[in-house]
Amino acid sequence: MTISDKTIIRDPVQGTIELSPIEARLMDTPIFQRLRGIRQLGMTHLVYPGAHHTRFEHALGSLLLADKMARAVELAAPERKRLRLAALLHDVGHLAFSHDSESVTASRLGDHEKRGAKMILSSPLAEIIEREDDPKTIARWMQGESYGQLITSDVGADRIDYLLRDAHYTGVAYGVIDGARILSTLRWEKNKPALRGGGLEAAESLIMARFEMFHAVYYHHAVRMARAMLQAALLEALDDSGMDWPAATLDGDTMMLVRLRALPAAKQFVDGLLTRQLHKRVWLGRWSEMDAGVKKSAKNGELAEELSKACGTSILVSVPDPFKSQTTIEILDEEGGSKSLGEASPLVASLEEAAESRAQLIIGAPAKERERVSLIVKKRMEK
């Protein structure tokens, strides 16, 4: 392949990214180009104004990192090429607003992995891939099978790129990862990725970066309220026969908001997002101290419904997502043995417990109703 055969892309996070002709053809399909309209962090830009980066550039960054990992573990050229394709397409199934919407829509529309695999198998993507590879294998690798673990593991290309990219665009001082050290110690052992002992500290830094980003950015209280408003609008749309979901699955963020705003029951939430009139906190409680009944009613929507009725206005309940360190990567020792990262690092092993102690239930109400509603909510929650 000559230089003229390659497509060169300049990325502010990963630097120069070179695409082969087949990768460029996949990138230029409407299915892939729609990722330009899907923000990586959903509604987070309402709190961190720079967070307008999209799934499009994340996919390209993941391709570059996957290629570096393939070289580090000395994959043969055909497998390296296949891994690049799987990394490029690993997020192609995302709906508008990425994970912010998926937690609501997945039960009805499927998660992005399943949707992406279906696209790879039965769309113009398949026709392009079939010229040089097998779409079924690409779909499996995209979901973490075989060498696809280099994309999806604890220290995989997907996670490294999104942490670096999210930190860059939000402007926070977290997301510091020693990617060079991870690459230099990366090995392929017993059909899965592993790190030599010298990579332990670099792996710890990655897990710590994710922990810090989780609390400072992804679950910032105002981000959670914006996310809850979006999800409330989507829930209304799922129950509205006027919502054209086959068309909506192809929307970017902007078009999805337009579509949701046309639904009377969802309009108030969309208008609040568009003008940044977010629901405000009226109650905050430590999740670990709540009884099982409250947790169940918060998760299934009954608590929000009960409080909305009692307060005469829309009350939103944001349940904390559990932080999972997911430390399955193996750390190799000099004697030929290995331990999971969680076993090798007391620091990493302690993070889930630390996260649980920080987890909070947030209840929000329209700003103009805040003072009146807070008394009603407090009485209900602290009885």
Brief summary:
β7 (330-332) and β8 form a beta hairpin. α5 runs parallel beside α13 (221-238) and α13 (221-238) packs antiparallel against α16. The radius of gyration is 22 Å and the shape is globular.
- Alpha-beta content class: alpha+beta
Q: Describe the sheet with the most strands.
A: 4 strands, mixed
Low-confidence stretches: none
Looking across the biggest beta sheet, what order are the strands in? 3-4-7-8
Q: Which range best describes the helical content: under 10%, 10-25%, 25-40%, 40-55%, 55-70% or over 70%?
A: 40-55%
The strand count comes to 9
| Shape category | globular
Task: Please identify the oligomeric state.
Answer: single chain
Q: Estimate nothing, just give the exact number of structural domains.
A: 2
**Mean pLDDT value:** 93
Distance between the termini: 71 Å
How large is the share of residues in beta strands? Answer: 5-15%
The CATH class of the largest domain is Mainly Alpha
In the CATH hierarchy, what is the superfamily of the largest domain? Hypothetical protein af1432
Rg, Å, rounded:
22 Å
Number of helices: 22
CATH architecture tag of the largest domain: Orthogonal Bundle
What features would you describe in this structure?
By secondary structure, this protein is of the alpha+beta class. The chain has two domains: 246 residues, Orthogonal Bundle (Hypothetical protein af1432), CATH 1.10.3210.10; 126 residues, Growth Hormone, Chain: A (Up-down Bundle). It is built from 22 helices and nine strands. The protein has a four-stranded mixed β-sheet with strand order 3-4-7-8. A hairpin with a 5-residue loop joins β7 and β8. α5 runs parallel beside α13. The longest helix has 19 residues. It is globular and about 65 Å long. The relative contact order is 0.11.
